[in-house]
Design a protein that fits this description.
mainly alpha; two-stranded antiparallel sheet; 3% strand; globular; binds fe (iii) ion
Length: 188
C-alpha cells in the first residue's frame, strides 16, 4: 500500500467532487455529489463505522475518475465503475473501505436474487443497468458473494445507494466528512 500524505488524498477527493461532482447520476434527479452525500448521511444515521461511511461517500468515485458520461448505460455499455473505484482507492485504504464499494453492484444482483420484492423498489435506471451488470445472481454467485468478509456491509451500502436519489434534500456538505476521511486515510 502506497505511503501517501493524508491531507493530499483527502484534498484530491474533495477536488474530484469539486470538478466532477456536478455530473448527473445515472439518469436520476440528483448529481453525483448529491448522491454521494445522501448515501454517506444515511450511513451516519444508521451509526455505520468510519470506514463504511467513507465507503458510502466514495462508492461511485469510479464515475468521477473514469470520466465516462453517465448515459453510457443507455448505449449498452457497462462502465464497471465499482472496479475503477476499488483499484484507485486500494492504494490508500484497506478492504473495510474498498470491499463494500467494489461489491455494491454485486449487492444489487444479490438482493434481486434473494429478496424478490427488492427489485420492485429499484429506479428505472437501476433496472436498466442491472441487465448490463448480468441480472440477478445465480445460486453459485450468491454463495461466492457471501465469502467476502465485508459482504454484509456491501448490502447495507446498497440500500443507502438506492435511497440516495432524492432531489433537493438538505444533508451535511462535503466538508462535514473531512474529519472522517482524515481518520480513515490516516489509519492505513
Ligand atoms: Fe450509487
Amino acid at each position: 500500500m502506497a505511503q501517501v500524505n493524508t491531507m493530499q488524498i483527502v484534498d484530491t477527493i474533495v477536488d474530484l467532487f469539486a470538478t466532477r461532482g456536478g455530473d448527473a447520476y445515472l439518469g436520476e434527479p440528483v448529481s453525483q455529489q448529491e448522491h454521494a452525500l445522501q448515501a454517506a448521511h444515511l450511513a451516519e444515521l444508521e451509526g455505520a463505522t468510519d470506514t463504511l461511511v467513507v465507503s458510502a461517500l466514495l462508492h461511485d468515485i469510479g464515475h468521477l475518475l473514469h470520466g465516462q458520461p453517465e448515459h453510457i448505460a443507455d448505449q449498452g455499455i457497462n462502465g464497471h465503475h465499482e472496479d475503477v473505484g476499488e483499484v484507485w482507492l486500494s492504494e490508500f485504504a484497506g478492504p473495510a473501505v474498498t470491499e463494500p464499494l467494489m461489491l455494491h453492484v454485486g449487492a444489487k444482483r444479490y438482493l434481486c436474487a434473494v429478496e424478490p420484492e427488492y427489485s420492485d423498489g429499484l429506479s428505472p435506471a437501476s433496472v436498466k443497468s442491472l441487465r448490463l451488470q448480468g441480472g440477478p445472481f445465480s445460486e453459485e454467485e450468491i454463495l461466492a458473494f457471501e465469502l467476502y468478509p465485508h459482504y454484509r456491509d456491501a448490502l447495507r451500502l446498497r440500500r443507502w445507494d438506492d435511497q440516495a436519489k432524492i432531489s433537493d434534500l438538505t444533508v451535511p456538505d462535503l466538508e462535514h466528512y473531512r474529519p472522517v476521511l482524515k481518520r480513515v486515510f490516516g489509519a492505513v
